[in-house]
Amino acid sequence: MDLRQLRYFLAIVEEGSFTRAAQRVNVAQPALSLHVRNMEEALGTPLLLRAPQGVTATDAGELLARRARSLLMDLERTEEEVRSLGREPMGTVRLGLPGTISGILSVPLIARCRDRYPKIKIVIAEAMSGFVREWLLDGGVDLAVLYAEPRETGVRSEPLLDEELVMLAPPGETGAQQTALGRLADIPLILPSGAHGLRAMIEDKLRSEGISVAPEIEVDSYGNIKRLVEQGYGCSVLPFHAVAREAADGRLVVRHFDPPGLWRRTYLAHATARPLTRAASVVSDILTTVAGELISEGTWAGARPIMADAAERQS
């Protein structure tokens, strides 16, 4: 196999169609089919399942596509790094962000990078933290902001900031501005599903306090959780920055948890198997700086910087 065949094969898998892949790579469809047959013969296994609705990868094809994607991205990074050697940093940097963080960080980060390093292009992909972690491990992104410290071999991470989690209640609820964690066991709860990182973090914390909860409604969308709480179906626990606007508008009531509060740590990570390009290193530094500025100016509501001693205890 050569790089050209890998590019063709990856296009077919990503497009799910020989016709669309042929248009994408500007190669005749029969030639693409011949390349795939040659690859299957060389590897001794089917790579694609063909059907009237399109094509899908077999298990072997999925493996090859993941490795091909990583290899081609590494080649692209290498070419960009060589071209920019001794010059202003340039090239594409792929950054994976959880959706709520992207809504705060993406625009000021891109603006700062464009202002200082116009030859760097940032590509931002948004998803739940678990998917962002998979992208990092598979080589789909150069940098990733994660809600749980990655423990996998070959991943390096640094604490970025802490986010406060708060209880949100329907509008009109009265009472103290602070509440005990134990109250969550006595009220109807609306939480993300068990596969969601926030749910796992909340349950781990409650379990350590001897508290057990059973949500009445489970939904992974923060927007839907907020609407359900606003309509009086129950209470929830979300990052403060995700509900600050609704609280200010009177659409939700926010209760902070009794000291020390409920916090979750975010991490900036990259894979050590793929050394950061100069452009990626620059973006990493700017991201950390911009995040700190957003905290200090109050834009990132409910976030606090990592103190040196706290970071050492966490590590």
UniProtKB/TrEMBL annotation:
Ranges for domain HTH lysR-type: 1-58
Keywords (A to Z) from UniProt: Activator, DNA-binding, Transcription, Transcription regulation
Coiled coil location: none
Domain of life according to the entry: Bacteria
Entry-linked InterPro entries: LysR_HTH_N, LysR_subst-bd, WH-like_DNA-bd_sf, WH_DNA-bd_sf
Gene Ontology biological process terms in this record: regulation of DNA-templated transcription initiation
An example molecular function term from Gene Ontology annotations: DNA-binding transcription factor activity
Family to which the UniProt record says this protein belongs: Belongs to the LysR transcriptional regulatory family.
Protein name: LysR family transcriptional regulator
Source organism of the structure: Thalassovita mangrovi
